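TL;DR need structure tokens for one chain.
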Amino acid sequence: MNTAMDKFFVHPDDVQNFGFDWGKLALTCAPEVNDAKQFSAGVVFVPPGQGHTRHNHPGAEEIIFIIKGTGEQMIEDENGVEETREVGPGTTVFIPESRFHATKNIGSDAMEIFVVYSPTGPEKALREAPDFHLLPAKNNKGA
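>> reply
TL;DR here they are.
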């Protein structure tokens, strides 16, 4: 049974995932998912040895929270100098507005990462990536 409240309780399997050569993103909070206005968020899944390349989100800040796995997180400082640190479960990483960054899974298990973008919008640019493809939702809630 579907209710108006379903959009407030979203599992990654409930939505189409953004697929890439390096992993996938389940956008679980966004204007098109549940009318979010101030930010968008989702769960990123990165297989062992994979990662996304250096990129930025012009005009938006990002929060990265590591749920599972071990990775290397690179962030450039205000002068463009890269700093890379090992990250694992419980680590929060703040990416300042428009700052270049990259994430790589260096562990033997998949990484699960919760990401937040503010304001909304960076997730739309991901659709322009050359390796972007949509993966169907696993759960059919009739939406």
